[in-house]
From TrEMBL:
CDD domains listed in its UniProt record: CARD
InterPro entries tied to this protein: CARD
Protein name stated in the entry: CARD domain-containing protein
Highest taxon above the source species: Eukaryota
Organism per entry: Allacma fusca
Domain CARD: residue ranges: 43-133
GO biological process: regulation of apoptotic process
Length: 133
């Protein structure tokens, strides 16, 4: 009876024992607000539009795309076929092209954010923060 049970919320992208950092939760909320704003303005693909202006920087600058693909597979954003397709590419630019195309077509940017953090892509998170502001 003396045990305390801590109530913790699990958010999209969480894995047990590895909660999403507060700064990522804040960025997820910014992205949701911005994509809603774009959708309200008539944009059919608001997540793709959000990233469009910096896509080349995402393709060239995202590091460890294999690790990023693994994180997205663990959160069910990618299936195993998609993950292997990314890993089979030789050039990181091509891997990232496929990866971001899948993420935006599935409207999974919110799920992408923790995976970027876990794969060491804080610089990409800063770009997304700028775009969502």
């Amino acid at each position: 009876m003396g045990e305390r049970i801590q109530n913790t919320a699990i958010h999209v992208g969480d894995t047990p024992g590895n909660p999403i950092p507060p700064e990522i939760l804040e960025l997820q909320n910014k992205v949701k607000r911005k994509t809603k704003e774009l959708r309200d303005l008539g944009e059919d693909f608001p997540q793709r539009e959000l990233l469009r202006r910096k896509l080349t920087q995402f393709y060239e600058g995202t590091t460890n795309p294999d690790g990023l693909a693994d994180h997205l597979y663990q959160t069910n954003v990618l299936n195993n076929y998609q993950r292997q397709k990314i890993k089979n590419e030789k050039m990181d630019y091509d891997k990232n092209d496929i990866l971001y195309d899948i993420v935006t077509s599935k409207e999974a940017i919110v799920e992408l954010l923790p995976a970027l953090k876990k794969s060491g892509n804080d610089h990409i998170l800063k770009l997304i923060d700028t775009l969502a502001s």
